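Entry for the shared binder. Reason: the reviewer on the internal report wants the predicted structure included alongside the sequence.
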Amino acid sequence: MTARRARIPLRRRFFLGCEGEIEQSYGALLQIMADESLQLRVHLDLQLLGGGDPLAIVEAAVQKARERAQKRGRFVGRAVLLDSDRHGHAPERDNRIAPLAQAHGLLLIWQRPCHEALLLRHLPGCQTLRPSSSAAAEAALVRQWPEYQKPMPARRLPEKLGLSEIQAAAQFEDDLRCFLSLLGFPIS
């Protein structure tokens, strides 16, 4: 008689395009939480896309997601973290973002105005803060989190950001809440 092997369920794969290293660190934090705290069977394929205008980033995300799906298999969901501080500078290009994202099943997670502002909204009492510029967002974040440095390595993010902080930010960030829900994070 042969012993049966236990079948380990496959992880659901998600693509997450990242403008820069700090977004990639944030994605790694989500992966750590999914694995360790929540025991979710997900895999975040974190891809660094580089900066540029929002359309160029979305185009890069579409291309990178296509390449990764061909090499590793299809994704359950696709998303990209985008700073909004350059949105509106080229309206004709901006008008192409939403249709392109929709055509390729790409969820746009707009960070208003930048990733530091999104991180700020994770901190207690800061969920409703809306800095007017990227510089103001970074200054406000450093006031609340003096140890913050750009880029912050993923291993240092849990010092300040846990599941309750992510859930708190998601209450005020619709795009983030949608993505976290797709992953299976408990969002009330």
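Summary line for the report: The mean pLDDT is 95.
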